[in-house]
Design a protein that fits this description.
This protein is 42% helix and 16% strand. The chain is an alpha/beta fold.
Length: 357
């Protein structure tokens, strides 16, 4: 299968080779050294400060989203949540579950949040803001720099879920003024799912250290304490962490984060130029590099997903609910090439020639 989803994605050979090996014992100096280097490279690629910290959570991105809500906010806070799709809604749900008061900014499909909307929803007493930098359910990239300026002006604790944006779109944690960045192993890191990462600024580390979290597994103080010696409080997904290390070293050797972002951008641009020949509409006013959301002008989006999967051995991302027949998404992350784009475009042209588009 050729994988054009946005996670899990195709992995490089060096990553897959590690997955074929036995998982080693991890309470060793050797594993600790790998984890210390993982933290260094993640901070480097996120352009975080040297005194920032990284917590490695064995769990999907949602696990780290929940851990951040639990460790960084209390019922005494009031947070703004940008909800432009299913992942923004997930932050809304997490705030409700953990009794964090929130103001929801609900956006129409395919639209980005504006400064005017932030100002109109702002209330005295707002202490936090939660945003998914790339709302992949709709294929919208938010302007995290503009949001960061708003947060600085109002002294708001700023959490950026960059699960689908890290290594795809430009993100400078210090310049943006983000207190927290979240990402995951199965997106542009192109490793198997199972690990999510939380990058914490010094201000966020202070907040974590003073938190009273009613959880053993999600108490980030323990993760930070054990991380000082390159370890985790509980048994992590050891193999995936080794694969992350190989992938980070691969990115470093290929020119670093900016080179990786340029690679993803080139794949996305190539696909978007070539799809113009076919009866699709790109339905986003602010496209990320990671994914292109497509609305077929005549056919069912879900039928196209099935046709590609069953007849051509190609995966794309379907949507659920009311969008199932309206929009499917094509990812540009993972171990993909321009030649892979050609294979997908040829399949779509063939489907069109059959009269199915």
């Amino acid at each position: 299968m050729l994988n054009f989803t946005v996670g899990p994605v195709q992995s490089a050979e060096c990553v897959k080779a590690i997955g074929a090996e036995d998982v080693p014992y991890f309470r060793t100096t050797e594993f600790s050294q790998i984890m210390v280097e993982n933290e260094r490279l993640i901070k480097q690629f996120a352009k975080a400060s040297d005194d920032s910290r990284v917590a490695f959570i064995t769990g999907s991105g949602t696990a780290s989203m929940e851990a951040v809500v639990m460790n960084c906010f209390t019922p005494n806070d009031l947070v703004m949540v940008i909800n432009g799709g299913s992942f923004g809604h997930r932050f809304v749900e997490l705030c409700a579950i953990h009794d964090i008061p929130y103001i929801e900014i609900e956006l129409p499909f395919g639209t980005a949040v504006s400064r005017k909307q932030l100002e109109s929803h702002y209330q005295e007493g707002v202490t936090g803001l939660l945003v998914n930098m790339d709302e992949t359910s709709t294929g919208v990239l938010y302007d995290v720099n503009m949001i960061g300026e708003f947060c600085k002006e109002h002294d708001i604790f700023y959490v950026v879920d960059a699960i689908s944006a890290f290594l795809c779109d430009a993100f400078d944690m210090q310049a943006v003024g983000a207190d927290v960045m979240i990402t995951g192993s199965q997106k542009a890191l192109a490793c198997p799912p199972g690990i999510s990462l939380i990058v914490l600024s010094p201000r966020a580390v202070d907040r974590v250290n003073y938190a009273h979290v009613k959880s053993m597994y999600f108490d980030l103080r323990n993760a930070l304490k054990d991380g000082e010696r390159g370890q985790t409080p509980f048994t992590p997904a050891v193999g995936t962490l080794l694969q992350i290390h190989a992938r980070l070293k691969e990115i470093e050797a290929a020119g670093g984060v900016d080179a990786e972002i340029a690679r993803v951008h080139a794949l996305a641009t190539d696909f978007r130029e070539r799809i113009k020949e076919l009866p699709f509409e790109i339905v986003s006013q602010s496209l990320p590099n990671a994914v292109t959301p497509l609305h077929p002008l005549k056919a069912s989006a879900y039928d196209i997903f099935l046709e590609l999967k069953d007849e051509y051995g190609i995966w794309v991302c379907p949507n659920g609910g009311e969008l199932a027949d309206k929009v499917f998404r094509v990812g540009h992350i993972g171990n993909l090439t321009i030649e892979d784009n050609t294979q997908l475009i040829c399949a779509l042209k063939d489907i069109n020639d059959k009269g199915l588009l």
